[in-house]
Amino acid sequence: MNKIMIGLLVGALLGAIDGATAWFTPEVRNEMTGIIIGSTMKGLITGLIAGFVARKVNSVAIGVLVGLSVQAALSLAVAYAQGDHYLEIILPGSIVGAIVGFATQRYPASQRSEVATASR
Fold this sequence. Notes:
Layout: H1 3-20, H2 32-56, H3 60-82, H4 86-106, H5 111-118
Helix pairs in contact: 1-2, 1-4, 2-3, 2-4, 3-4
């Protein structure tokens, strides 16, 4: 599985989980479907961008920073459009982005490191 696919899968899964945590905010429980779909889409976008970056750059720090930045920007846009709950939207979204960026950098191992390990 390539890095873009890892980003999409991890982003979608964690995005859906992030959206599901909106259940703990009682005033938005009637909007759960839209929140979960929106959070999943943010995760997919973040995974796609982080996956492309991971194909070009081999740095966990840059991967985490890219994932965090993309997801924070998308979460800020959603929070601004909604007009409330900034912390509840941006903080978990940023954590999801950082995890997606990390996952795209670490998994699957690049072929260069597999070749180096096999030659030892």
